[in-house]
Amino acid sequence: MIIDLPFIWAGLIAFAVLAYVLLDGFDLGIGILFPFLRNREDRHLAMNTIAPVWDGNETWLVLGGGGLFAVFPLAYAIVMPALYPLIIAMLLGLIFRGVAFEFVHRTKRMQGFWEFGFWGGSLVAAISQGMALGALVQGITVEGRAYGGGNWDWLTPFSALTALALVVGYAVLGATWLILKTEGASLERAQKLAAPLSMALLALIGAVSLATPFLETRYMARWFGWPSGIWSAIVPLLLAYAAWQLWQGLRNQDHLRPFLATVAIFVLSYVGLGVSFYPYLVPHSLTIYAAAAPDGSLQFLLLGAVVLLPMILAYTAYSYWIFRGKVRPDDGYH
């Protein structure tokens, strides 16, 4: 039996990236929402809802980035120079956000500064990720086996649109997470924030979806051609159902359904990207097969992944199970 190693590894890395977006997404969303929370007590309560899990969530970013370097080195060598400013900005934002998370409870005199740092680091990281996504979707110039574009190719109206969509998406994830994890006035504030943010997110997803097919003829053929358009139509139909579930959950003041519906919206949007990209890793210049490392390397690395991935999934699931339920103001993890 022939095992399609590049396809398997593309799926594993895609899963790691999706896990990072979902798990660290509501962390970043809480940081983005900081200025809109009522007071310092609410902000610190919001931080306590993610305190047991936030650093573990970023494991998936390391796995996705490290996996890309090890398994698809040619794609890594092309994508990184194209997105260096965004990658550096994202890492600096995540570092400053992490430092602020630890320091905000260690000082009184500079507490406001570190709260600002938590908000600013979260916002910079989200914007950088969104612009990197937009730059990848619109295409990266490749000459031979290297990046052939300019220093500012990533800065376009489309990448700005995707950045805005991701920032709002993370904010919705953060708001619905707070609905799930808080009570009383904090819960009410999260519900009030979630409704307009959800409408803005759906409008932005629609705008990005409408603009994407006009970036590249292959996108247009994949989404509106025959017969591929029939199968592709399943994604927006499911996304519309998830949006309806989100609205119903907010209207009925459910605590779990809005978060699950928002997760479904992210997953379906991610699937939509896969529909547009596959089999390319760098659209539309480099396929997963052209970018893959030799089969011997892929086999060796897969043995490690078979051991490592279940461990990561197990401790992630265990930490969320242990710290399930509502978080109250007198609960603290610092």
Features:
334 residues; mainly alpha
Explain how this protein is built.
The strands form two sheets. The protein has a two-stranded antiparallel sheet with strand order 1-2. A two-stranded antiparallel ribbon has the order 3-4. It is mainly α. The chain has one domain (18-322). The protein has helices spanning 5-32, 40-50, 54-57, 59-71, 73-103, 111-138, 157-181, 184-211, 217-224, 228-232, 234-251, 257-277, 288-291, 295-322, and strands at 142-143, 146-147, 280-282, 286-287.
> What's the story with the biggest beta sheet?
2 strands, antiparallel
Radius of gyration: 20 Å
Strand content: under 5%
Query: How large is the count of helical segments?
Result: 14
Give the terminus-to-terminus CA distance: 52 Å
* Average pLDDT metric: 90
State the gist of this model.
The chain has 14 helices and 4 strands. The mean pLDDT is about 90. It has helices at about 5-30, 40-50, 55, 60-70, 75-105, 110-140, 155-180, 185-210, 215-225, 230, 235-250, 255-275, 290, 295-320, and strands spanning about 140-145, 145, 280, 285.
